[in-house]
Specification:
By secondary structure, the chain is of the alpha/beta class. It has 14 helices and 15 strands.
């Protein structure tokens, strides 16, 4: 059976989990990568790497051409670390919007690449941070964004560019903190960085990297065009509770707790901004429309299955 060709923009952990998943065997994966080390890692995961830099428009010509004739595109790349916009998304949309010169080439791009792919969507991984602080209230996809941090504003700007661009109808997956056995706050715990006191603590949301990869895959086939999905698990955890669960699972001391008034001098400004937003997010739409079955409904479900020594070793790589 002919394989689907799917383009991935961004060469990190989620991209490689997609390729390693059983369904990924039906795909010819092609991924944009900037660093030579990433190129090798992609090859090891069965992904064809294409060199390019989202900060250099000229380097995107080849990947843009591949994306125009692919069955689907998955955009996983983060915005820059400064500003309120995402110029990387702007460059990417420009690269895939280049109009072919010949009539024959333009006609080919208008035809479905394969009868099996009608209805496929492009997918963008955004962040639940676009909702801003909700003081612990429950929200869903119908809640209007209230991005307050610069990083959330950049993601919201990228969403807007996709909605208004000429690309294929995108599905927008808003993800919270991503965790896995190799993505745990072990260094933070070892450094004894404090968490908020119980009375000041904030609700936080999570998704396992495997479940996020699965949601990306399912959204290619099951999502509605220009649809937003909150890709979060079933847990209702405060941030300090999450740190305590990880510490207990790894036999590391729990972090000390401090009131908000004393915390600023002990954590980075970015961490403090995370500790200034509290929200609980419903995942009903994700389950109903994408029909996803979470492998890990809560972080505790994963923590109870792992071996502490293995997790410690993986977080050092």
């Amino acid at each position: 059976m002919r394989k689907l060709r799917i383009v991935i923009v961004g060469s990190g952990d989620v991209a490689q989990r997609l390729a390693r998943a059983p369904a990924g065997a039906r795909v010819r994966w092609v991924a944009l990568a900037r660093r030579a080390t990433a190129l090798e890692g992609l090859r090891d995961s069965g992904i064809l790497p294409i060199g390019g830099d989202l900060d250099a428009r000229a380097s995107l010509a080849r990947m843009g051409a591949l994306a125009r004739s692919a069955h689907a595109t998955i955009y996983l790349a983060p915005p820059p670390n400064i500003g309120d916009d995402d110029p990387r998304m702007k460059r990417w949309l420009a690269a895939i919007s280049t109009r072919p010169k010949s009539k024959r080439a333009r006609a080919k791009l208008r035809r479905p690449a394969d009868k099996r792919t009608r209805g496929l969507r492009s997918v963008y991984i955004s962040t639940t941070g676009v909702y801003g602080d909700r003081c612990g209230d429950w929200i869903d996809e119908q809640s209007a964004p209230r991005a307050s941090s610069a990083r959330a504003k950049r993601r919201l700007a990228a969403e807007s560019r996709l909605r208004n661009g000429r690309s294929a109808f995108p599905s927008l997956l808003r993800a919270p903190g991503i965790y896995a056995e190799s993505r745990l706050p072990i260094e933070r715990l070892r450094e004894r960085l404090p968490a908020l006191s119980e009375e000041d603590d904030v609700y936080t949301n999570h998704i396992h990297a495997d479940d996020l990869a699965n949601a990306v895959w399912l959204s290619l086939f099951r999502s509605r065009p220009r649809r937003v999905y909150n890709v979060v698990d079933d847990a209702t955890l405060k941030m300090g509770e999450y740190f305590d669960q990880v510490a207990d699972a790894l036999a590391i001391a729990r972090p000390p707790r401090l009131p908000r008034s004393e915390l600023a001098s002990h954590v980075t400004p970015m961490m403090l901004s995370f500790m200034s937003e509290s929200r609980r997010i419903r995942n009903v739409r994700m389950k109903r429309e994408l029909k996803i079955r979470l492998r890990f409904p809560t972080p505790r479900d994963m923590l109870e299955t792992m071996k502490p020594e293995t997790a410690l070793q993986r977080n050092l790589i």
